[in-house]
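Table S2 (continued). Query chain:
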Amino acid sequence: MEGGLGFRNLLCFNKAMLGKQVWRLIRYPNLLVSRILKSKYYPKDSILNCETPKNASWFWQSIISAREAIKGGILKRVGSGKSIRIWKDQWIPNNLNGRPTTGMPASGEEQKVEELISNFRWKRNEIYRRFNREDAENILKIPISLSRSGDMHFWTHCKNGEFSVKSCYQVLLKEDRSMERGAKGEAGSSYDDSNKQIWKTLWSLNIKHKIKLFIWRCITNTLTARETIFRRTKQGSPICSRCGDRMETIEHILFHCHQAQKVWKLAPIQWDGIQNQTGCFKKWWAALSQTTSRAEGRQHIALTANLLWQLWKDRNEMEFEGKEREGLKIVQKASAEWMEYEEAWKGKNEKSTSETDGAIGSARERGREEGELLELQIATKKAAVGHKLGIGIVAKEAGGRIRAEWTLVERSAHRDIQDEAVAVRLALMKAKQQGWQRIKIISANKQLIALLKAGKGDNPNTATLVEDINVLANLFQMCSFEVRNISNMSLSNQISHYALSILMDEERFFGSP
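Corresponding output:
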């Protein structure tokens, strides 16, 4: 069941586990097992394209059965381009299947991507001549690696490009459910999204696990109410023993019975806007889940879950022990348990915050002890029309004195994080040319700085740029990265705007002290 207790679809899970073995053979070709299998089953080809011999072992047939499951999610990241076949490999991130949509030449010659590269730049004229406009634009968005590392495989379903069983399983499960709906003649709808919101809200609530399980059983209609027992066994009475008026369903126990109505009248929170949904608990909870975006929405839902749990406990005490609690005591008990969990959660967060602040303070003290650095403030600006990207770089001393300015023009990839990464890479190259050894890169792009500190990109293009930036950063005695608001980098911002009006790069130096 989607979103329920998380039981695995074993067929999809098994394929995902086998897919991990395929990925290992691709990513680590020098392992002993990789070399043995290659020499036996695909000596002249890739595992992604080789044919399976009729006498292949059961083990190899199992591995190959998972190949198709992961093949569509593997993209070749351009390094030198020597191993990438232009027309047969998946290497263009923004194309649907990773391959060119342009028709293959009639000659059918084997061509490699390295033929399209010269001096770490794409051969723009050659690309526009060989490919249609859409392909050409997408190819020119791919950054060329300065480190000239070999071409690598990138798993597109994970931001860091590394294969994971979890991501593969989710992809296979989604495809499996899509096929099931197609076989039944059903179409995907907002109902699927609603289900996801229900489970996401439930499992993220700050309440006891037994209450989460209780709510899950309410949603899936698996609680042992009288009506459920009678429907399944045809034994006993389906009528509510407390009011004797209606059948005892989950909805009757929690909303319609006179005891439940008393409790809701006394409750500190009311849900009048969804009263018309109380005939079906799942629909009512789905409507409730939509309130998470409002102020204190999650806390209110958590309190509501505690109220529902106490109503169910009260029903069981009445059913099996003949005891009946007052409505006010039910509300007080639910509120007390809710407050207990909220206080524990706040205490945990306050401790975490104080520890983080202390760590930041220590880092700042260490920075002061290390002495002054040159700051390289970087800003970018895209042209409103076309692909022009203006880059402004300002090198400043600690006292604010400007040492250098660069006004640069590049081609925009029309993705802010990639454009900013290109600018950072250029800034590091300029700093190295000047012989500077201690620098700090300042950017307004929080996402990029986070990727640089993690050392991994979020797609094949940024992965190449982050890799290059890390290689360049290691060439300095000290190189750090910092986020700063663009309003505090007015000069570099002005220069990036000015860069859109020039044709050639400009640079200015102001001498050393």
